[in-house]
Amino acid sequence: MARRPRNVISLGRPSGFAYASLGIILIASFFPFYWTYLIGSGDAGTLTDPTMSWLPGGNFLDNARSVLTNPAVNFWKALGNSIIVSTTIALSTVVLSTLAGFAFAKLRFKGSGPLLIGVVATMVVPVQLGVVPLYILMNEFGWTGELGAVIVPALVSAFGVFWMTQYMQQSLPTELIEAARVDGCNMIRTFWHVAIPAARPAAAMLFLFTFVTAWNNFMWPLIILDQSNPTLPLALSLLQGNYFVDYSLVLSGTLLATVPLLLLFIFAGRQLVSGIMAGAVKG
Amino acid sequence: MATTDLDTTTTGSRTPDNGWRQRLGRWDVKASPYIYIAPFFLVFGVFGLFPIVYTAVISLMDWDTIRNTGSFIGMDNFAYVLQDRKFWVALRNTFSIFLLSAIPQLLLSTFIAAMLDNNLRARTFWRMGVLVPFVVMPVAVGIIFSQLFADNSGQINDWLGMVGVDPIGWHKEVLPSHVAIATMVNFRWTGYNALILLAAMQAIPRDLYEAAAIDGAARMRRFLSITIPQIRPTMIFVIITATIGNLQIFDEPRVFDTTGTGGADQQWLTITMYMYNTGWGQLDFGRASAIAWLLFLIIVVFSLLNLLITRKFISSSDSTGGK
Lengths: 283, 323
Known about the structure:
Shape of chain A: globular
CATH topology of the domain at 80-239 and 269-282 in chain A: MetI-like fold
Number of helices of chain B: 13
CATH architecture of the largest domain in chain B: Orthogonal Bundle
Largest sheet of chain A: none
Number of domains of chain B: 2
Strand content of chain A: under 5%
Low-confidence stretches of chain A: 1-10
Distance between the termini of chain B: 41 Å
Radius of gyration of chain A: 24 Å
Radius of gyration of chain B: 27 Å
Low-confidence stretches of chain B: 1-15, 318-323
Mean pLDDT of chain A: 86
Distance between the termini of chain A: 21 Å
Number of strands of chain B: 2
Oligomer: heterodimer
CATH class of the largest domain in chain B: Mainly Alpha
Number of helices of chain A: 12
Helix content of chain B: 55-70%
Number of strands of chain A: 0
CATH topology of the largest domain in chain B: MetI-like fold
CATH class of the domain at 80-239 and 269-282 in chain A: Mainly Alpha
CATH superfamily of the domain at 80-239 and 269-282 in chain A: MetI-like
Shape of chain B: flat
């Protein structure tokens, strides 16, 4: 974006007001975490203590340890499960969406138009519409309680195909594919050497989105998994149920559970921001 | 359309097996697209499409969860649900939470977007900053806010007490519980929507602003007469996606108390919670499916309605503001 010339009237030059209001908004959105840390570093009485100090107490590590080692909460197992589930789902969605997106965007075949429209149309269907038969299906397969029951239905997403198709239509030149074909590449090598490198930015964003969505998903794991083999959101809801007398434990566990994605965000937040903004311009 | 050229890849090899290779190449071109979309459609068909269709069948059945079969009972499930007080209460709650979150969220995210649309120092920092709540699990947000909004000496009630307001029964009364849950939704989505609106604002040609500034339009005037009309399609997009998402709300109200039933008097029972409780609390899959279909119909009708209203509303402000 070109910079505006300096001599023109000051258009949207950052004013103190902009910084101040954004600062207040950031403080407001960080406050719940700080408050959670305050309670999580106290003891059972801190939550209801009217003279609670605004400086953290010294119990956070102790509280965290008793959450982490409590067998009823299964925190480590939940963390491992969440990592397995989200990584598998995100990888598979990216690979299968890129394959299908390449075909829809750049190859000609009978029925491609109606098929794509059909896929896009299902994006407005709420997940609730499918959960009852999905549960019955998982019961038939004997997958109830298994991670596979969470992973397999989410291996693909209509949004992923829509996203990759859009991206490749715009940023993968057809001449590049033709050139590869003329050079003797067969279809799969063309896909590997031309389509995949071109699709990398969109694939990275799709990976992030899918990962976050899978990580945060609560309803389906609640339906299909049980307490002994939970994902993180499920473990959190169990923690809340188990310890409702001592909220310093509940909140220290809750804070711990948010750490992995916050770490991911530090490294990948920039891409997430540009992904959201890029999607908005197209959408 | 330019892909037609792919059918004639006859350059290169003049070896004797030219004909064979050509046929192989043609087969490759013909079959490849189907091979590429096959894995997607295989999984999508079994776990995406089939359940959607089969929900309609189950909604007409009295489902036996032990034998895993059902017997047709016509529209009885729909009749039951539509006569159930809980359904209407859940519908009221869902819409109330939706309205309480949609409107403040749109206003606030437009404001944040306008602030971000300045030539800020460290703009990546600010953009990432407003997005942080988005990556926090809704369940975690729900647990944290349910304590911030605790009825007895929760932080919010403490603050209200300082300015002389009596404690509010956030978990006891209907409207306060909706406000608390809507706050969680706003916490998670305001920054996200601000970034979408920011992208739309940055696509506005800057000379529009310069021309207006030269004509003497002040900052506020430029915002109302240029920015708002220009980002109108994106605002509609934000409103529609918020509608679809918000009407399905489950995670936050589910963990708003430890029982997950939506309050002693269903103060914050939402439609999806009602469906979950019917399906996996009472193990009545027929009725749960009927609720799922009703939810889907409500979402479709309401999104269309919303589209019409927002179009009209935003375009009328356009004609008064712009010129």
